[in-house]
Amino acid sequence: WGLFLLTVALGETAAAGCPTPCVCDNLRARVLCLNGSLTAVPTTIPQVGKGPGSGWWWWQPCGNSVFYLCDRQLTKKLNLRGNSFTVIPAGAFLGTLYLTHLDLQRCKVARLEEGAFRGLGRLVYLNLASNDIAILYQESLDGLSSLQQLILEGNRIEEIQPGAFGHLGSLTVLDLRANALVYLPDMVFQGLAVLRWLRLSHNTLHVLGSEAFAALPALQRLSLDHNELQALPGEALARLDGVTRLDMGHNPITCLAEEALAMASLKHLFLDNAALQEVAAEAFTRSPLLRTLDLRANQLQGLPALAGAGALVRVNLAGNPLLCSCLLRPFHDWLARERVQAEGTCEAPAALRGRTLDSLRPPEMRCGHHELSPSPTAPSEQPRAGGSRQCPRGCSCSPDFHHGSCENRGLQEIPQGFPRDTRLLDLRRNAFGMVPPGAFPDLKELVSLHLQSCSIRALHPGALRGLESLVYLYLTDNRLSTLAATAFEGAPRLAYLNLDHNAFTRLPTGAFQFLPNLISLHLQHNTIRELAEGDLAGAGGLRWLYLAGNAIKHIAPTALAPTVMLEKLHLEGNQLAEVPTAALQGLSALSELKLSRNPIKHMGDGVFLPVASSLQHLYLDNMGLQRISPSAFTGLGSKIRSLYLEGNKMSSIPNMSNFTGLEILNLRDVPFHCDCQLLPLRRWIDKLNLRVGATCGSPTEARGLKVKLSTTFQTCPGWGDEAASKPSQKKRSGKSPARGFKKSRA
C-alpha cells in the first residue's frame, strides 16, 4: 500500500495540480515552465508533503485554489526561463517559500521591485542572466539571506544603488559580466562578507572608487577583464588582502609603474591582450606571492629583471614584439638565476626572429648602435607646466587622477574651465540637449568623455574640436537620430564609440571617415532597419560592431566590406529572416557572430562559408529555427569553441563530429525527435565531456528525457555495440543512471 500511494502521489494526482505550460518533476521537487508565454509568476505551483504521523507522501489542497503542503515541504527548484515577465513585483514568490533554486533567465525582466524576492530565505541559487535590468535598487534583493550564487550576466546594469547587496550575507559568487557598468563607487559591494568570486568581465568599467572593494574580506578571485581600464586600479585593489587570482586582460593599460600592485596574497595575474608597453622592475614588489604572470599579446619589447618577485615561476610573453638584443640580457639572466619559466619568441633582430626565449644564449643577444637607446618610458603623470587647477562651479576635479565630474547636476550647458590635464570627464545625467562647436576647449589630454543620458539631440560639427587625445566617447541613452559627416572631426584617436540606446534609424553615413583608429562601435538598441552600402565607409580598423536590439531586416552584400578587420559582429534581436552570408564575404578575421533572436526559420547549405576559417563563437539560439540543412555548417570545424542552439524548434541537427574544439555546446529546449536517425548525435554527445542539455521532444514515451538517457535508441541497428561499451563508461564516471538502466533490464 505504501508503494501504491507513493506512485499515485508522485504521478497522476500530482500532474493535475501542475499549471499550464509547466512540467512538474515531483521526485526532484522541481517545476519547469520553460519558454512559454507566461507574463506573471504562476501562483499555482504544486507542493508535495507527508501525511501527519505517517511515512506516506501525499498531495492535498490546503488552500482554496493553490496546492500547499500541509507540513510546509514546498517545491525547491523553479525554472521559469524564457518567459515574459518584464517586472518582478513585490512578494512574487510568497507562495513558494521553500525554494532553493530559481531560474529567471531570458524573461525580459527590466525591473525588480523592492521586495521582489522577499520570503525566499532558503534560496541558494538565483539566475537572472540575459534580461534587461538597468538598475539594482536598494531593496531589489531583500530577503535572500541564504543566497550563495547570484547570476546577473548579460543585462544592461549601469547603476548599483548603495546597499543593493546589503542583505546577501551568504553570497559566495556574484556574476555581473556583460553589463553596462562604467564606474564602481566606494563600498558598492558592502554586505558581501563571504563573497569569494566577483565577476565583472565585459563591462565598460573606466573608473573604480578607491574603496570600491573595501567590503570584500573573503574575496579570492576577481575578474575585471574585457573592460576599459586605462591604468591598473592599484588603490582599489590594495584593499583585497585575500585575492589569489586577478584577471585584468583586454584592458587598454599601457604601463605598470613601480609598486603598481600591492596584493599580499596574489598568486596569479592575467594582463593579456592589453596595451602594455612598459613594466617597471619594481612593479610587483608588494605582491610577494605572485607565481604566474600572463602578459601575452601586448606591445612589450622586453622586461627588466623583476625585483621582489621571488615566488614567480612562470611568465608568459607570447605574442609580444620582443627585441632580443643586449637590452634583454638582464631579464634573461634573471630568468636563469631565479629559475623562472618564460614563454615568448623574438621579433627582432632578424637573426633571432622566431627563437624562443629559453633557447637564447647571452652571447647571441648583441646590440648595434641603434639598439642602445633606452626603452620607451611610461607617460608622465606630472601635469604640464601651466596646467591650471581650477574647476567649474558645482563640479569636482581630482588632480591626482586627472578626473573631472559634473554628473547629475541638472546642467543645461556644457561647463568649461576644467584643468588642462584632465583625462577623464564625466558629464552624465544632465540636460544639455546639444553639444555645440568647440564645447571642450583646452582639453588636449582628455582621453575619456562621458555624455550618457544627457538628452542630446544634436552633436554639431566641430563639437569635438581639439580633443586630439580622445580615445573613449560615451553617448549612450540620448536622443540622437542623425550625425553630420564632420561630427567627429578633431578627435582622430577615437577608438571606442558608444551610440547605443539612441534614435538612429540608419547608420550615420560618412561620420566614420574621420575616425581612422575606431576599434569598437556600439549601436545596439536603436531602430536601425538596414545596413546599406557605404554606411561603414572609413571604418577600416573596426574590430567590434554591436547592433543588437535594432530592427534590421536587410544587410547589403557590400555593407560590411570596409570592416576587413572585424572580429565581433553582434546582430542578435533584429528582424533578419536569413543568415547574411553575402555580407560576410571578406571578413577573414571574424571570430564571434551573434544571430540570436532573429526570425530565421531555415538555414541553407554553406551559410557560414565566408567566415569558416576564423569563426570560433556562433550564437543561433532562440530564433524559432525549424530546419538546419545537413550542409549548413560546411567549412566549420575544429576552430569552433562555442555553439549556442538552445530555444529552437528543429527536431534534428547536422553532423558536427568534426567540431573537435568545442568547449561550450548548448542544445537546451530543442525538441529532438529521438529515433534511430538521431543515434549518431546521441553517440557523439556521449563522447563529449560537456553538459549540452539535449532533451527529447518526441516520441511521446521519450518526451522530456535527456537524449543521453532515452531508451528509444535500444531498438536501433548497432545499439548492441553501444550497450556493450556501457560497463567501461560506468567504471569511468561512476554515475548511477548506468546502474539503474542495467537493473531495469535485469
TrEMBL record:
Is the keyword Nucleotide-binding assigned to this protein? no
Short name of one Pfam family? LRR_8
Region Disordered: list its residue ranges. Answer: 357-389, 717-746
Show where the LRRCT domain sits: 320-368, 671-717
Keyword list (alphabetical) reads: Disulfide bond, Extracellular matrix, Glycoprotein, Leucine-rich repeat, Repeat, Secreted, Signal
Cellular component (GO) terms are: plasma membrane
Q: Gene3D superfamilies per the record?
A: Ribonuclease Inhibitor (3.80.10.10)
Task: Spell out the subcellular localization from the entry.
Answer: Secreted, Extracellular space, Extracellular matrix
Basic and acidic residues bias: start-end ranges = 357-372
Question: Residues in domain LRRNT?
Answer: 17-51, 390-424
InterPro entries named among the record's database cross-references? Cys-rich_flank_reg_C, Leu-rich_rpt, Leu-rich_rpt_typical-subtyp, LRR_dom_sf, LRR_TM_domain-containing, LRRNT
- Give yes or no: UniProt keyword tRNA-binding: no
Q: Where is the composition biased (Basic residues)?
A: 728-746
Q: Where is the signal peptide?
A: 1-17
In the record, the note on similarity to other proteins reads: Belongs to the small leucine-rich proteoglycan (SLRP) family. SLRP class IV subfamily.
Alphabetical list of PANTHER family matching this protein = ANTIGEN BSP, PUTATIVE-RELATED, INSULIN LIKE GROWTH FACTOR BINDING PROTEIN ACID LABILE SUBUNIT
The protein, known as: CHADL protein
